[in-house]
Structure formats: C-alpha cells, structure tokens
Amino acid sequence: MKPIAATALALALSSLLSGAQAEEKPAPPKKPVTMADILAASSAADWRPLDPQNTLYLELASGRVVIELSPGYAPLHVDNIRTLAKQGYYDGLAIVRSQDNYVVQWADPNDDEKTPEKAKPLGGAKAQLPSEYTVPISDATPFTRLRDADGYAPQVGFAQGMPAGRDPKANQTWLTHCYGALGVARGNDPLSGSGTSLYVIIGHAPRQLDRNINVAGRVVQGMEKLSILPRGTGPLGFYEKPEQYVPITSIKLAADVPESERTRIEVLRTDTATWDALVASRRNRKDDWYQVPAGHVELCNVPIPVRPIDAAKPAIAK
Amino acid sequence: MKPIAATALALALSSLLSGAQAEEKPAPPKKPVTMADILAASSAADWRPLDPQNTLYLELASGRVVIELSPGYAPLHVDNIRTLAKQGYYDGLAIVRSQDNYVVQWADPNDDEKTPEKAKPLGGAKAQLPSEYTVPISDATPFTRLRDADGYAPQVGFAQGMPAGRDPKANQTWLTHCYGALGVARGNDPLSGSGTSLYVIIGHAPRQLDRNINVAGRVVQGMEKLSILPRGTGPLGFYEKPEQYVPITSIKLAADVPESERTRIEVLRTDTATWDALVASRRNRKDDWYQVPAGHVELCNVPIPVRPIDAAKPAIAK
User: Fold this and answer.
1) Are B3 and A103 in contact (CB under 8 A)?
2) Which pLDDT value is given to residue B5?
3) How far is CA A147 from CA A156, A175, B316, in A?
C-alpha cells in the first residue's frame, strides 16, 4: 500500500503524441498528463548541464553531494566560496550540526573564539563580506514566475533552476530557503558570514530566513546523504562531541576535478514550455491515485528534475 | 557561526513581567518578545497532557516515538488503529519505506498480493473503511484560525494541536500534511486504507495530499528517530531487501502501557492567548539575529512546543 502510486511511464506517449492514430480508431478516454509523461516527452533542449565553475562536489564517506552555486544571486559569496574550495579550505572540515526539520551545517571546528590560533587560514579568501540577502533585479537574475500566491514574497518563481522570490517595487530578488538550499551561516552580525561555514536545509522550508541570510546555491543531487545524518543533541542541533562530527573529505569545484571523475547529470530548465507543463501537472495532480487536485502548488513543492546525461529517464521524480 | 542564534531565556521575564519595577528606575530599551520568552512566561493552564487513549508509542531499537491520534478528524480510522494496536498487530512489523523529503511508512511486509496467506490476521479490525479525508465541521473539530493566507485551503489553523484546513462553504475540515503528520496509507482504491500501513511526513509538507488520504494524528516527540532512517533505493523509497527493513518492536496505546512507563510530556494548547502570542512571535521574528521580519507565517512553520511534565523549560524550541 502506498500513499502515492507510481504513474506508468508507458502512458506517456499515448497521451501526448496521439495525433495521427487518433483519427483511425475511436480514441480511448484521455489519460491525464502527469509529470512522468512530461519528462518522457521532453526534448534534449529542455535540459541544461551544470557549469563546472558553478558546481561543488561535497565528498563524504557516504559519497558525493552535488551542489550548484548561484553567482547571479550572491556573486561575492559565490566567489569567496570558490576561492576557499580552490585552496582546499573545506577539505578535512566536518559537519558539526544536524538539527531535525531544519539544517545541517559544516564549519572548521577549530574556528572558535577559544582557539583562534588553530583555525584554518583563509588564504586569499575574505573573512567578511557585505550582505547579499537580496540583489537588484537584473539580467543576472532571470525569473520564471510561478503564478501561485505565496505568503512570504510578492512574487515567487524559478531562477535558473533555483526557487526565488522577487519584489518588483523594491527592485529586489533573492533565493528562497526551500529543501536543499545552500546558505552561508552567519552570527548576529549581518557581516559575519563569509562562506567558511555553510548550511543546507533538510526540512520544511524555513522561509522566514529569506532576506535574512545569503543563499548561495542548491543541492541538486545527494540530499539523502545529508538529510539522514544523526541529529545533534546540543542546542540548535550542534553535535556535542568531536567524535560525533561527520568528516568532510573535500569540497572541490567541479572544474578542478578531472572530467572523467565529474558527475554527469543535467537539470530540467525552468524557462521552457516543458517546465510550464510540469508546474501545471503539479498544481493539479491527476492520476489513478489523486481524488482531489489541489489547484495550487507551493514554490517549495515543485520538484526540479535531474537526470544522468544521455539517459532517457529522470533520476528524480516522485 | 549559526544561521539562528539562540535567544537567551534570561530576557524573558524582564520583557514580559516588568510592571512594578519599571516605575522605580528608567526602563531599559524594550527587547522584542520571542517564542522562548512566551514559553518561559506561560502558565500551567497553557499546556495539556496527552490522553492515553489517543496516544501511540511506536517502539524502535533507537527508542520511542510518541504519536497523538486525532479521533475528531478520522474517527473510524483512529478506532481501527486502536483495535490493531490493542491486538498487537503492529508488533514485529517493519518500516518498509523511507523516501527522501517525503515519508517513512510501515506495514506488514507479508501483506502482499504474492503471499496473502502469510499476512498477519486483522482480528477484530476492519480491512476496509470509508474515507474520512474530510469531516463535517462540528464540536469534535475545534479550530483556532491562523490569519495568514494559505494556497491549499480557504482557511487554516490548529485543531487541538494539529495543523488543519477548513472550507466553511463546503462544511468540511481536515488535518493537513505538515512535518510529522501521521497518515493512513492506501492504494489507488480510495477505500483501501485501514490503518495496517501508516506513514509519517519527514520532509517539506506535501500539502497536495490533503483531502486525498486520511490523516489520523501527528508525531509529538521522536521525529528524529524516523527522519534519519536510510532512504530506500527502490521506487518511491521502498527498501529493496528485507534486511534493510527497520524492525518495529511494538506500537501500543499509551493506555495499555503501565503508567510508570509512559512518557510524561505535555503539549502547548493551541486555543489560548499564549498560543496567539507564540504565533505572532513566529510571524515576525524579532531577536538579535533577524534583520527582516517575514510578516507572515505558514501553517506548517508554526512549531507546537512539547515539554516534560513538571519541567519549566520547553523540550522543543528552535
């Protein structure tokens, strides 16, 4: 028994591409179009590769987490994160926090007021950056609007595969804290974040963080390696003992990894007719299981499919 | 470095209870009121115990998960689940599914079309029940409305500690699929759910399920024992091999557990002035960390605090 039944991919072509045949024999009752149908009928142009200069590989003992960076939305922070990754700053650090229904976070465990002399040197990276909680709307911040209302932002939509908010009156746009968002941890001082400590959202979207902290990207593959980490038992889900830390083997820019060792995946574009159809199919779920289509889809409930390059089937769909 | 800084409980009384003293010396600048302040100033009457007849203890090797049932919203299903629990039906079953950002689900692994003769007998429980996806609004469905707009329901709010939706025109109300919701799995036949297989939401609220499946309760303590289970690698996150199943020691009604072995916790009431203050504090987060209050709080983003009975401090707060 399943709360959601899989929709057979086999139905895809019959419902989408039934032009000629339909005139020859009586048409069967039309099957509603599901996301699986739409992905099966997508063209190569509906997908985009990841730019190796904007892709991080977070390597854990359990495998690789693939993160896409968002230079259009946090240019200074993305640049600093790239610099840190190129220097090997993150290699050997650890995930130090896992708070249920909220975040995992990594940092240099020695970057502490008590042991500043043990902290890893920043090298060419900056220790402090101006905030980029919002940026002006520009060509660097493309936006496919989601027509559905949102309580946290005047407008929401998708910016090159990342969920985003927008306030045209204030000429501001920002990435939102949906599941998988990569953020730049900071203390109470709004200037204190630099990218040395990063976090990923592992629970229900804490949208109240939007515009209060820098989102610098999004996990596109491997979330399940972060979301299942044992929760920390200290305040805010910090691990209480160093032996509980989850070691980070390395975080490298994909461009600095030999091509043969890169993860060959592509992401569905969010500015195409296929994308619009996908969103519509999620707004009103119609398949053999659903009884009452919602007539609404929330920003963080729209899945952004990823698949192996050259493969016909989507890697992520539910 | 932390994306959210803890607010000192120490500030609580100074901001809430500063009546008399304030006239004697110049008042210090007022600190904004946080959830921690509100909980610290709450009275015993703001909290309610769990009814042992409506409480399930799911026992795993890792410990106990405490679930509150919702007889007002799914009376037939809650009754059937109680019957199953009393018979020991769930004891020795397993969690058979863990799908990232979605659900964990348990079932009788032998309750399968291939091996119907091996399925555990239902005894006095029913194999099929009419759907209770929505129920008429009545005295059994109390509702404290949340004023914030919601895309999935005409009205949302809280029903005895559970997030709920409501459509007054249709005279319908239902529990919503927020993090921790307990649901009754079903196949494509709307009648097929009975409570033998149950699921818990472990990711961003899949609100499209609302009104399509029975919600029968909510996890009030121990979510971290479910949310960290390794994800299944089969379709829909089902485990592919029996050795991957997570054994369920037992699921018992708290009333059937000796009083000395019950979990002594209480839940913040959701129909008090203290609750209203808590919601307001979450709508506009004002503390030393937040720069821009959201001015909005989404239904599934309002935490419902739980604490040990007799203790002064909340057990859950973030």
Assistant:
1) yes
2) 33
3) 8, 17, 36
* Cα distances (angstroms) measured from residue A55 to each of A50, A69, A110, A250, B148: 7, 6, 26, 14, 37
Higher-pLDDT residue of B228 and A22 is: B228
**Range 157-216 of B in CB contact (< 8 A) with A:** 178-179, 183, 185-188, 190, 192-193, 196-197, 199, 203-213
**Phi/psi-derived region of residue A310, left when phi > 0, alpha when psi is between -120 and 50, beta in every other case:** left
Within 13 A of B7's CA, how many CA atoms are on the CB side? 23
Residues of B in Cβ contact (< 8 Å) with A186: 1-3
Q: Are the C-beta atoms of residues A140 and A155 closer than 8 Å to each other?
A: no
Task: Note whether B228 contacts A223, CB cutoff 8 Å.
Answer: no
The 10s digit of each residue's pLDDT in B95-146 is 999 999 999 999 999 887 777 788 999 999 999 999 999 999 999 899 999 9
Percentage above 90 pLDDT, chain B:
77
ipTM of the complex: 0.89
pLDDT confidence of residue A136: 97
Quote the tokens at residue A288.
């053999």
- Residue A30: what pLDDT? 67
* Yes or no, beta carbons of B3 and A235 under 8 Å apart: no
What confidence tier does A203 reach under pLDDT thresholds 50, 70, 90?
A: very high
Q: How far apart are CA A246 and CA A62, in angstroms?
A: 10
B57 close to B249: Cβ distance less than 8 angstroms: no
A27-42 tens-digit pLDDT: 665 677 889 999 999 9
Helix, strand, or coil (residue A146): strand
CB-CB contact of B33 with B287 (8 Å): no
Q: E strand or H helix at B58, and its extent? A: strand B55-60
Question: Longest Cα pair distance anywhere in chain A, in angstroms?
Answer: 80
Query: Residue A1 above 60 pLDDT?
Result: no
* Tens of pLDDT, residues A224-256: 999 999 999 999 999 999 999 999 999 999 999
Tell me the CB-side half-sphere exposure of residue B91, using CA atoms within 13 A: 8
Cα–Cα distance for residue pair B98/B238, rounded to 1 Å: 6
Q: Is A198 helix (H, G, I), strand (E, B) or coil?
A: strand
List the single best residue of B204, B219, B221, B231 to mutate versus A (max A Cβ within 10 A).
B204
Question: CA A292, A296, A302: angle at the middle one, nearest 5?
Answer: 110
Q: Name residues 211-250 of chain B within 8 A of A (Cβ).
A: 211-213, 223-224, 227-231, 235-237
